[in-house]
Specification:
By secondary structure, this protein is α/β, with parallel strands linked by helices. The chain has two domains: about 120 residues, NAD(P)-binding Rossmann-like Domain (Rossmann fold, 3-Layer(aba) Sandwich), CATH 3.40.50.720; about 100 residues, Alpha-Beta Plaits (2-Layer Sandwich). About 40% of the residues lie in helices and about 25% in strands. It has nine helices and eleven strands. It has a six-stranded parallel β-sheet with strand order 3-2-1-4-5-6, with helices on both faces. A five-stranded antiparallel β-sheet has the order 7-8-11-9-10. The longest helix has 14 residues. The chain is elongated and about 60 Å long. It holds the Pfam family TrkA_C.
Length: about 220
């Protein structure tokens, strides 16, 4: 059964989320106090509703308790973001993800029970920075302060070698958890898997380990 999402706040970030969920084929409830914004995404969302998300009765009427993940994406209203998060948690929403506007905002959100705090601009900046500073890194996804997943394109240095021969785990500490080969995706490849030209290696580990592998091993 596919997950059901709710996006609360249809600014630039929230609106982009609604579009992506739609393109991926997921059901999404789009909520905003601004009728014009709601109308803009009415054809993309499964349901698009004009509602005040810091009103407990409004949230109850929307049936948000039934969604798998609610994403709070208010533009610059920190107070509304905090209040909406509190109400969603009190309603028993399974997962509440919230866009943070600052480090202090994040601290408050974490204290009141937000399941994940998002810094979209910062996270995108990091991904772009890693991409433009390396010819090998295709994408870089931060999992925590020190750990990430990187997509690293194979070079002649590793082509035609098995994962056992590369011995990445012992040499660098990180782990190749998958290989993207054209349209094929190999999950948890065996140690006998041979690296082909233009393979994209999905590498999990501490940031220092990933960069050591990217600089010296591939």
């Amino acid at each position: 059964m596919k997950k059901l999402f709710a996006v609360i706040g249809l600014g630039r970030f929230g609106g982009s989320l609604v579009e992506e969920f739609h393109h991926l084929g997921f059901e999404v409830l789009a909520v905003d106090v601004n009728e014009e914004r709601v109308n803009r995404f009415s054809e993309l969302a499964t349901h698009a509703v004009v509602a005040n998300a810091i009103n407990e009765n409004n949230l109850k009427e929307l049936g948000l308790k039934n969604v798998d993940i609610a994403i709070v994406s208010f533009g610059g209203n920190i107070e509304a973001s905090i209040l909406a998060t509190l109400l969603l948690k009190e309603l028993g929403v399974k997962q509440v993800w919230v866009k943070a506007l600052s480090e202090n905002h994040q601290k408050v959100l974490e204290k009141i029970g937000a399941d994940r705090v998002i810094h979209p601009e910062r996270e995108m900046a990091k991904r772009i920075a890693h991409h433009v500073t390396s010819d090998k890194i295709v994408d870089f996804i931060e999992l925590s302060k020190n750990h990430s997943i990187a997509e690293i394109i194979s070079t002649k240095k590793v082509t035609d070698k098995t994962l056992n021969e590369l011995n990445v785990r012992s040499k660098y500490g990180c782990t190749i958890i998958g290989i993207q080969r054209g349209e094929e995706f190999i999950v948890s490849p065996s140690i006998e898997e041979v690296i082909c030209p233009n393979d994209i290696l999905i590498v999990l580990g501490h940031n220092n380990e990933i960069h050591a592998f990217e600089e010296k091993g591939v």
